[in-house]
Amino acid sequence: MNEEQLNDTDDLQERLREVESLLARYRQSLVAALDPESSQPAQDAAQNTALTAQILNDLRVRLDAMHPADVAYALEALPLEERLLVWDMVRAERDGEILLEVSDAVRETLIDAMERHELVAATESLDTDELADLVPDLPQEVVEDVFQALPPEEQAQLRAAISYPEGTVGALMDFDMVTVREDVTLEVVLRYLRRFDELPEHTDKIFVIDRDERLEGVLTLESLLTHDPDSDVRAAMKKDVVRFQPEDKAEEAAQAFERYDLVSAPVVDAENRVVGRLTLVAVVDFIREESEAEQLANAGLREEEDIFASVWDSVKNRWAWLAVNLVTAFIASRVIGVFETSIEKLVALAALMPIVAGIGGNSGNQTVTMIVRAIAMGQVKPDATRRLLKKELGVALINGTLWGGLLGALAWWLYESISLGLVMTAAMTLNLLLAAFAGVGIPMLRQRLGADPAIGGSVMITALTDSGGFFIFLGLATLFLM
Q1: Are 268 and 387 part of one and the same domain?
Q2: At 4, is the pLDDT very low, low, confident or very high (cuts 50, 70, 90)?
């Protein structure tokens, strides 16, 4: 992280502290005004009321000066009661852009607190592609009102945008773009651009179309400025264009943006007509959201959780994989129970078996993380399972022999039993092989079945390596040491 990023983070925290400080002053003024034991005269009460109003005004001014993303950050960091107070202080015309910035869980609490007419008003300042992001979270009656308030062209765009499944280019594209014909001069294009109050954000190229709005090429701003103004667009444009279709996977589009260093790219339909534009900012947002979702999935969480959500909401979000953990932990305990007699005869087994299970779980999580990342990057197809297994089993065999041998030697030295050391080495190697098999097999199987490879991977790996590790180690000990 560079110095500028550090300063940005410090500034963000400072703005949050200012909001929290104003809220603390507001609570103090309310306590003073409502104190039943206070004997302050009416004049003092009026001054206190004026002070409370001044604090709220200062809070409103502070919020007006903050970027929508920073206001969203502050809302996410506040408990529900204070969050709603701050939300009431936000100017109504900024509601829509802030709703787009907050997390899904916090957005739900804000929408629940708004009246129908307030929600409709919040959408008025949003572009069609932004509306498409917000519509799924709005009540149905509000969605109907929003549609009725839009011009026919934007209604059609909104219907098209929300019709594309999540995770596709169509769900990410926007409709704000600049197009020109190839048979006009660059001077005409420059005059045309000067008519705009401002160009669409992240405009690095202009799309060149024919009379039927089919994509012919792109005219970069660099080419526009460096070529002779009297030359026509056809001479300055590039025909070799990276383009997408609305049905393309967003992951593949993200990889193309990284590979070709794109800032924007056209989105075309089956007839090569330009229907929208994909920008770098939309791709970055998608990558960030996918990364956060993967982190939550690996932890066994079904969705992003408001840290100040009610106890019951948090329980509903977390219970599923906790239940799976409970079952797997019970299975592991029963595996240990089968070998109680062996553990009683050789107490050293109780001290050593967590090492076998723990190393196996760590190795398995390394493998599953690599495989899930490769799947997300489009580098692994379902038919690659055999090659990946061969490679990961080779890695596990070498690590098992190396580190298992080291632990075996330590067990031999600590407990003066070469047999125990050999069992430790064999158990470690076998459990790492099991972890490698599961680390490749679980995400690849989920991909083949059409499920998210990341969901619950670490939970299932830990379950297998715990139960398997205990069974392998205690089983070998029972066979060769008893």
Answers
A1: no
A2: very low
* Domain of residue 119, residue span: 10-167
> Do 108 and 216 lie in a common domain?
no
Q: Are residues 289 and 347 in the same domain?
A: no
Mean pLDDT score across all residues of the chain:
86
- Asked whether residue 161 falls in the same domain as residue 79, the answer is yes
pTM > 0.85:
no
Q: d(Cα 57, Cα 48) in Å, to the nearest integer? A: 14
The string of pLDDT tens digits covering residues 376-421 is 766 777 677 888 889 999 999 999 999 999 999 998 998 888 999 9
Do both 362 and 224 map to the same domain? no
Please check whether residue 2 lies inside any domain of the structure.
no
Residue 424, pLDDT above cutoff 70: yes
One domain for residues 342 and 401: yes
Q: Identify the sign of the CA torsion 231, 233, 234, 238.
A: positive
Distance CA 167, CA 453 (A): 15
Calculate what percentage of the chain has a pLDDT beyond 90: 54
The H or E element spanning position 275 is strand 274-279
Q: Are residues 68 and 160 in the same domain?
A: yes
State the pLDDT confidence band at 2, using cuts at 50, 70 and 90. Answer: very low
Q: What is the pLDDT of residue 291?
A: 78
pLDDT tens track for 198-245: 999 999 999 999 999 999 999 999 999 999 999 999 999 999 999 999
Integer-rounded Cα radius of gyration of the chain? 30
The per-residue pLDDT for range 108-129, each reduced to its tens digit, is: 999 999 999 999 999 998 988 8
Give me 326's structure tokens.
């409970």
How far is 90 from 86, CA to CA, in rounded Å?
Answer: 7
Query: Which among 227, 233, 231 is positioned nearest to 179, based on CA atoms?
Result: 233
Domain count, the chain: 3
Ramachandran area for residue 253 (φ above 0: left; ψ -120 to 50: alpha; else beta): alpha
- Least Cα distance to 324 among 178, 462, 419 occurs for 462
Residue 356: CATH number of its domain: 1.10.357.20
Same domain, 188 and 151: no
Boundary-marking domain end, from 144, 167, 190: 167
Residues 108, 99: Cα–Cα separation, whole Å: 9
Specify the pairing of strand 264-268 against strand 274-279. Answer: antiparallel
Amino acid at 247: E
Report yes or no on 344 lying in a domain: yes
Would 3 be classed as within a structural domain? no
Taking residues 252-277, report their average pLDDT: 95
Q: What is the DSSP letter of 200?
A: P
CA distance 447 to 451: 6
